Amino acid sequence: MSGGILAIVSHPDDETFGCGGTLAVHVEKGYEVNVLCLTCNPAERRAEIIDACMVLGVNEPIVFNDLHVTVDPGLIRRVSDIIVEKNPRVVITHLPFDYHREHKLVYQVVKDAVEWAAHTTTYESPCQVERLLLMEVNTLIPSPHVQVDISGVIEKKKEATDRYTTQLAKFQWGYYQRFNIKKAELRGVQADCLYAEAFLEEPLTSNSPFYTRKATKSLL
Ligand SMILES: [Zn+2]
């Protein structure tokens, strides 16, 4: 099935820690699932994200070679080009109140890129994303709007997490492994399942006049 999910993340590991279970669930349901990672620094993290995505079953990730995230028109256009190419119905990215400076910048880039990808003035075949969901990596969401049951794929999320040896080595007490599991348990308790991932639903701004879907014959 086309028109699936595109996760747009700041660094290799964000896709696994933030929404790896949700991605794996939708792969199992037969949807197309893609990952776009905006930086790769140091370069050996590329091998880790390719490995992790293979474990999750998603397509080979698109990884930009940028060292840092900057909110500029060039990056926004590169991201909107990928959105149009992959044509997802759902885009997942970072929280605007994430503690990590680059995660916050990626949120800004993606908000603009989703808008531009829908413009008929920019693209011959624009992509109108239906839902924009924001994930929790290390910063928790106070009151999630959406919780996806990942009980059936929790082993895949654990295995994908373990592929990030350079990141796991930063914390000898197993921070990432323990945090990811406890976070999924907490969301599972709230959602009445064993393990879940939580998201905020971000309203799409659709600010431009170039949306045919704005036309309607009736409000009821
Ligand atoms: Zn990150």
Could you characterize the architecture of this molecule?
This protein is of the alpha/beta class and 220 residues long. The protein has helices at 14-28, 45-56, 73-86, 101-117, 154-162, 165-168, 175-191; strands spanning 5-9, 33-37, 62-63, 90-93, 131-135, 146-149, 196-202. Strand 1, helix 1 and strand 2 (33-37) form a beta-alpha-beta unit. The mean pLDDT is 95. Zinc ion is lined by residues 10-11, 14, 100, 103.
Blueprint of the fold:
Layout: E1 5-9, H1 14-28, E2 33-37, H2 45-56, E3 62-63, H3 73-86, E4 90-93, H4 101-117, E5 131-135, E6 146-149, H5 154-162, H6 165-168, H7 175-191, E7 196-202
Parallel strand pairs: 1-2, 1-4, 2-3, 4-5
Antiparallel strand pairs: 5-7, 6-7
The structure holds zinc ion.
List keywords for this structure.
binds zinc ion, Rossmann fold, globular, alpha/beta, seven-stranded mixed beta sheet, 15% strand
Helix and strand composition category: alpha/beta
Mean pLDDT: 95
- Tally of helical runs: 7
Bound molecules: zinc ion
Largest beta sheet, briefly?
7 strands, mixed
* Strands, total number: 7
Count of domain modules: 1
Q: Look at the structure and give the CATH class.
A: Alpha Beta
Approximate strand percentage: 5-15%
What's the CATH architecture? 3-Layer(aba) Sandwich
Q: N-to-C terminal Cα separation, in Å? A: 31 Å
Low-confidence stretches: none
Instruction: Give the strand order, joined by hyphens, for the main sheet.
Output: 3-2-1-4-5-7-6
| SSE string | EHEHEHEHEEHHHE
Helix content: 40-55%
- Anisotropy-based shape: globular
CATH superfamily: LmbE-like
